Amino acid sequence: RASAAALAARSLRPPRGFGAAPRSARVSAEAGRGTRCGGAVLGGLTQGLSDGCAESQAGSAAPGRGRFGESGGKRAQRTVRQQIRVIVVAGGASKEVLIKVHACGVNPVETYIRSGTYARKPALPYTPGSDVAGVIESVGEHVTAFKKGDRVFTLETLSGGYAEYAVAAANRVFPLPEKLDFRQGAAIGVPYFTAYRALFQKGCAKAGESVLVHGASGGVGLAACQIARACGLKVLGTAGTEEGMNVILGNGAHQAFNHRDPNYTERIKACTGPGGVDIIIEMLSNVNLDADLQLLSHAGRVMVVGCRGRVEINPRDTMSKESSIIGVSLFLATEEERRECATAVLDGIEAGWLKPVVGLEYPLEKVAKAHEDIICSSGARGKMVLLL
C-alpha cells in the first residue's frame, strides 16, 4: 500500500549523452544528511501526514527508508522520518532532458498519491512533482528541440520534481518565455492543461456558454477562469474567502460567490436565471455534486476534476435535464490531446491573457508543510510552489 511507504527519489544510472553533475549541491540543513553518489543530484524527500491533518511527528529511520509508527493517545498518528537524500539522477533514454529545477508546483493529486488513496499507484520509492520550471542542464543525443541553458517548464517528470534536478521526456517539456518567471512556470503544466482538457476536450465548451468553476481561487480554478474568459464564455466562480473572491474576479470571472454562504447556490440561480449553468468545473465533487445537478442547464455537464470521498446523488436529476457527469484525468490524455493543450497554453502566454497566479511558496525542506496546507487551508489563492 502506497501510504505505508515513505517518499524517496529513484536511483538509476546516469543517461548516456547527459553532461556531468554539478560540482556541488546543497541539501536541507534541517533534514537528514545524504551521501553524494556521483552523477547529477536529486533531493528526495520522505514525509507522511496523519489523517485529518493531525500534526506529523519527526522520527528516525535508516537512510533510504521511511516508517510509520503510532503515537500515544486515543488517536494513532503515522510517524515518519523526514529526509532529503543526495542520489544519482534517473535516466537512460536518448529522448530525455536533465533540468536544473528552480521551482516545482504542488498539486492536490500528489497528496492523494502519497497517501495511497489515489487510483493510480506509483512504483516505490517515489518522488512527486510534475510541474517543474528551470533551466536545461543537458539533453539526450536525440533531443533537438532544446539545448543547454534553455528556460523550460514541464507537464510531467520521470524522476520527480521535488528535487534540485529532474529528468523529463522531451515531449513533456515546453519553452518558458522570458515574460514569466520560474515561479509562474511551475504553475502552468498540470493546472492549465487540466483546465483546458476539462473545458474543451471533455466538456465541449463553446463561446457564449456559461461555466461555473468551483474552488476557482486555486491553481486549476484560476486557469479555468482565464481560459474560459479568453474563449468567450460567461464565467462564474466560487471561493471560500473574500480574498479568494477578489482573486477570481481579477482573473477572468464575471461573478464570484462565497461557497461558505449557506445560500450561495440560490445566489447562483438568481444570476443564471431559469436556464441554469452549461458547464460546472468541479474540484470537490464529494461535497458539491448533488447541488451541482440542481444548477445545470438542459444538457449541462459537470466536469469532475477533484474528489476526496464518496457522494450520494439521485440519478433522476440527470434524467430530468439530460445532463452529464464526466470525469477528467490528465493522465489519460492522448499525445495528440496533450499537443492540443500545449498549443492553446503557449498561445495564451504569447497573447498575454495566460498569467499564472502564484500562491504560497515553500523551500524544498518544507514540502510536508506544503502538503498539509494544500489540503487543510481555509482557502486557496493561486498555485502553491516549492522554491529551490
Structure, described:
- This protein is of the alpha/beta class and about 400 residues long.
- It is built from 10 helices and 15 strands.
- The strands form 3 sheets. Strands 3, 4, 5, 6, 7, 14 and 15 form a 7-stranded mixed sheet that branches. It has a 6-stranded parallel sheet with strand order 10-9-8-11-12-13, with helices on both faces. A two-stranded antiparallel ribbon has the order 1-2.
- α5 links the parallel β9 (about 235-240) and β10 (about 255-260).
- α3 (about 190-200) crosses α9.
- The longest helix is centred in the last third of the chain and has 17 residues, at about 335-350.
- The protein is globular, with a radius of gyration of 21 Å.
Write the layout of secondary structure elements.
Blueprint: E1 41-46, E2 83-88, E3 96-105, H1 108-115, E4 132-139, E5 151-154, E6 165-169, E7 173-175, H2 182-185, H3 189-202, E8 210-213, H4 219-230, E9 234-239, H5 242-249, E10 255-258, H6 264-272, E11 277-282, H7 285-295, E12 296-304, H8 316-319, E13 324-327, H9 335-351, E14 358-363, H10 367-376, E15 383-387
Parallel strand pairs: 8-9, 8-11, 9-10, 11-12, 12-13, 14-15
Antiparallel strand pairs: 1-2, 3-4, 3-6, 3-15, 4-5, 5-7
Helix pairs in contact: 3-4, 3-9
